């Protein structure tokens, strides 16, 4: 220990300095989620989440239960949302179907995001790996989501797992690029230089500075990607690449409903409402987070 | 500027070249055999072998690839396994349909976005902003296929004022007024999410621009707000918007698959789907490569426009 | 002459108060009268309400601000005037110039376009006439070859030229009042001197009354007729420049004046230079070259050219020079942050780049870096304690408990209570943040500190305190220091020796007192001459005018 | 002008000429032009080509077409046909007996993968000395020779190369092929020199619209006059609309079935297969999925078929108790029934619905099924390679023809090698027996034996006959269809 520290200098009184910004709200993002638009979003997503989690308790029938004689019954006391072509209760199917979207939204997207972040983080520091990774991301991004969906389904066959893989494949480059932009900006920041000067390794900088400072844009993107995932599930199911029957998903329910729009316009209403609520909620969340970041 | 362009061009070519190998290999890895699809369930083993030889599928992988690239270089896309005809002419019809639809949607989205966001920023009225943000969110939150179907049901079936689908019988150019009517519904369904994204981005950029010091300078000179938005802020916000527009093109192409399905619009989306499901390698290869080329080109053109719009890049090659 | 107290008032601000939705009002009670043809300086520390007062005049307050009181121009009440009404006044009667010339101009429009647009806003529609007037204006602000410049974009001009264009814009419609909000803060001293002279000439030629907002007392002493001192939104003192400098009444004014660093008068006695230290230098640059951009693509820009410099142990070497002269580059080179194109960098006699990678880290361990911007140099996500601890963590010095103890010691060393370790950077003031940055730099007991303009983002009074602290620590700990600054007075205060850079080349080096008192090079002399002297009695412009009359 | 108003019209008066706008689900595939595998191909073959004889849709009694009369030798190995002498191809070349020989030989060529290839290949001798008569010699009596002559289009040998590339389709039929834009449109124009007389329509435009719903929407919006592919439910609702008529073509039936891989350990016990057959609620499939456009069956045959046997057809009427009993017995004998995959093409919603009903039905008798929707391409590959792991759902045709056509031509029934990997000498013998007989002279007892063999093996479990439907605007009159499902548009006319 140096002499200077053992004999401390006389502390000067420190009061508020003119122009002192004063304490700022500890967590802008959390605040954004609990007020205004953000709160509406959280409530909407929370509601859908709740319905999905409690689905089995709320559903009057099983998701694949075929009720004798109840062929395409309209909404009424027995079946709030009516029944489908195969005599199944649409309300029950919708409640169970939410769960597929929840898996896709809250498992596949985070996995894709995590992989993308990890890849982007590790590769973007060194020019060579950066070029390789970025070209690979470009390549993945070059295919529209649905084409990627069709291609991957050709390998894996339809199913939730396929949808999840497609979503991971879609999100990976998105997050990879986003992180790369972050790395590029953050590594130029004086505080990164400061830690490099004292000997921080790239890995240290990435872990301690870049990643924490990229979290905000990543959370905003996460919410956006989650809403995209709901679409991808819907679109893939619409093209018959989604969940395997007889299990329902919101997308497959909408697809079935849309096929019967003439005869049973009520069919698609329920699942569509949920999809819109979920996407809307996620969008509102992402908007409020983005706004909080800018403020 | 030229050097900047050349380097961009180089990386574009690299991506395309990598993509060609990737696609060629990938499509062959997909389970399912074009020959059995083509021959049908009742074909004998000999007939399948004959077909395989005829398609050149008995040659080794690299030789097939080299042949393909060689043919591509001579602009010969080869014959479709399934449809027999030349892939080039097969794709050109579909491509025209898709390009017209996508461009129409792109123009619709871009024009709509510029009008909506400048209106929102110039007037800056509370009700207008709320209305826009509501419409905007709705446009993003309702899936494209749902919008498309509702549009058909309302405007073609319930109140038949516009065609329910299909391409204009006389083509796009001989009767533009008729063609336009055929384009409106699918174009609208396709454009809506892109419009919403663009509007949101542009409004936000304009707001950011309005916070820039140069705007304060202009205001301090007594230039009216409306004029500042239209002649200065918009001009500054455009380069970034062009980039976003380029990204939107990708999602428009993706959305086109859905919209084409709903509106019986014989475009590339259907070709891709059918091509893959019938394992029609030549068609799929070319289509996938095309999608990469379009993506790469859009980025390139986006960069070009960006550079052209931004004198700092145009004159100094920095961005 | 503006000195006459009889010239009529053009702008009267009475009991102006501006508040945001926060406890303390931005402006509490400000009354100022501006008279025809005078230059009125508005001074005060950061956040004292100078800018808000000026913006209120043109109705350019940020959204959410509420202003009360009265602002009268030409018998008209400006406060609460409609946007259309304000637009008639803005630019035409009262014009405003802002601090940042880099961003005050629209980057995608030519300056000709922007000038024409300003003229068009007040009725000059003819393109030809507007172009002619634009050329005239550019000539008036002394831009060479104005015809060619019309087609230039802002990025093609130098900082000083940009500020001149901003001035031209403000003068386009011959306003009676010019509000200049720190118009020279971002500029080099030499450029600043030219702009100030230009302002003075414009006032003389057109009789425009100017409100000059600045925190630089040198600038005030140089050209202001009267001074209004603001503190926390209130006018604390007001008076004729010379009188106020000579006899400040208020303690606040006195502190303000006391914080101002001064250069010795030119030609003053030269102290005997200390003999050169023979010990191994803490850092030595041997004929170093640095190029930016890839040389392969033929765009290499030589930022440093054949520079040789030594910093002896325990010695503070000030590095001065105009913007872009390569000061930062040299500092970063020592820290190993820029690649070397030629020459050698020796840390304590060891060639860093020649050393194996593993040793390089240890060689650099004795080196620390303090950056200009205290805000950007601390990770906003880490508590300041964590930031100070980081070098210890990286080198795994001691146990975690020892590290925490060391953090407390370091905080004390920079005169901050240990409880501050828990705070986030944004919960501190600028000066406090710079102390934290200093504490972090000292964490590993460096033998060499590179400080890149460590106080240029701070207020004068805060700057004085931080410099004091720096000097004290340096004497106590005895580290060598490469102190980079564009402020010659600051260098004069802290440095033992000074090195003058110009366009990547070392033009002069020597003991501070010698170089500043008797510069050997013309360039150094020009730099010194351009520094505004915070003493109205030594006012150059005035002197010139007095001699001429 | 409005694109929509142009399409609306209704005065009820017969229109001179006019273009019939047809919506088809699938495009033509030149390499598979003779396989009856897409509705656009059906329009093409039905309109551009003629055959030697025509079956009326609901019987197997040949009627003259390009052949005016015919005579079969007593042993059934020679057929002499008298041909029309006033027929020319669209190219202007007169039609002769050589063209008949060429057409039959083309069908016998395996690269065209025609279903009746074996039958065509069994025609071994051609006497074409008379250009307007031909004598065919067979390797053995062919009970289904007239099936071949009804299905076989007479093609032009000069343009076969262009046919393969999809550039030209030259026949003798009522309409000439005009153009094809792959993936979107095929056009035909009237053949003014048609030997039966000038057709009423000026031409036909076939739009390829793979989405059934889009077809319906375009029909409703009067952008199409006739749609060939729509869901059963859409047909049902169009039928209730006065602006449209729905045609049901009895005689051109298909059959949906559940196939079983008999080498699967669980399915190798016939009792399990029979249990599955009993457990299928066929009536529900017909009512709820086919919306009444079908008939529940246990044997493939429609009621007019010579092999039809009412009693045999009721063998596997829905009976859960019997099914349960069979499963229990099998399980008692140590048969393990794990979860069985049920494969079906994902593209077609009908298969999906049937599969889900079957899954629910089988669950009731203790057979767990996992649905395995796959792409058509993969399903076909598994069908050909006999690679289905357990169960699958598909449909077959040919039961509406001479029964031997099914037994020797339809892939799932092929006694030599079928997708079920079922081989049984009794079945093989029964199938050969009904084939190698003189047309119309098959012993009913042989058919009964064939039915018995099929039911005993229970390797292919029929669900229902599906009746093809199409829908048209009421301005379209006199539509027809062949047994093969080809629209006959020769007589068709439009009203304003
Ligand atoms: N947009 C705003 N919202 C809230 N408070 C603001 C805003 N702008 C300025 N303030 C507050 O108003 C007060 C006066 O600010 P002003 O910009 O006039 O200071 P200044 O004297 O010009 O300082 P500086 O020398 O730093 O430019 C400060 O306390 C500042 O925090
Ligand atoms: N990363 C870079 N790439 C290219 N050129 C650069 C880069 N950094 C600095 N330069 C150029 O190198 C020259 C020296 O820059 P440097 O930052 O060392 O100047 P400085 O003396 O610190 O100026 P200031 O007082 O403005 O901070 C300048 O002309 C600058 O434009
Ligand atoms: Mg200010
Ligand atoms: Mg610098």
Automatic annotation (TrEMBL), chain A:
From which organism does this entry originate? Nocardioides ginsengisoli
* Family in the record: Belongs to the binding-protein-dependent transport system permease family.
Q: Where in the cell is it found?
A: Cell membrane
Bilayer disposition of the protein: Multi-pass membrane protein
Where does the ABC transmembrane type-1 domain start and stop, copy by copy?
98-284
Q: Enumerate the InterPro entries for this protein.
A: BP-dependent_transpt_permease, MetI-like, MetI-like_sf
Family matches, as PROSITE patterns: ABC_TM1 (PS50928)
In residue numbers, the region (Disordered) covers 1-21
Alphabetic keyword roster: Cell membrane, Membrane, Transmembrane, Transmembrane helix, Transport
From start to end residue, where is composition biased (Pro residues)? 10-21
| Transmembrane parts of this sequence | 40-59, 102-128, 140-169, 218-244, 264-285
Top-level taxon in the UniProt lineage: Bacteria
Q: What is this protein called?
A: ABC transporter permease
From TrEMBL, chain B:
- Compartments in which it is found: Cell membrane
- Enumerate the UniProt keywords alphabetically: Cell membrane, Membrane, Transmembrane, Transmembrane helix, Transport
**Boundaries of every ABC transmembrane type-1 domain copy:** 95-302
Q: Topologically, how does it sit relative to the membrane?
A: Multi-pass membrane protein
Q: Which InterPro entries match?
A: BPD_transp_1_N (IPR045621), MetI-like (IPR000515), MetI-like_sf (IPR035906)
User: Which Pfam families does the protein's record reference?
Assistant: BPD_transp_1 (PF00528), BPD_transp_1_N (PF19300)
Q: Which residues cross the membrane?
A: 12-30, 99-123, 135-159, 179-202, 237-263, 283-305
Q: What is its main location?
A: membrane
Q: Which residues form a coiled coil?
A: none
Family, per entry:
Belongs to the binding-protein-dependent transport system permease family.
The name this protein goes by in its record: ABC transporter permease
From TrEMBL, chain C:
Q: Where is the ABC transporter domain?
A: 11-257, 283-528
Q: Sorted alphabetically, which PROSITE patterns does this protein's record hold?
A: ABC_TRANSPORTER_1, ABC_TRANSPORTER_2
SMART domains in alphabetical order = AAA
Q: Which UniProt keywords apply?
A: ATP-binding, Cell membrane, Membrane, Nucleotide-binding, Transport
Q: How does it sit in the membrane?
A: Peripheral membrane protein
Q: Which domain of life is it from?
A: Bacteria
Indicate whether Membrane appears among the record's keywords.
yes
Question: Where the protein is mainly located, per its record?
Answer: membrane
Spell out the subcellular localization from the entry: Cell membrane
Q: Which GO terms describe its molecular function?
A: ATP binding
Give the record's family classification: Belongs to the ABC transporter superfamily.
Q: What is this protein called?
A: Dipeptide ABC transporter ATP-binding protein
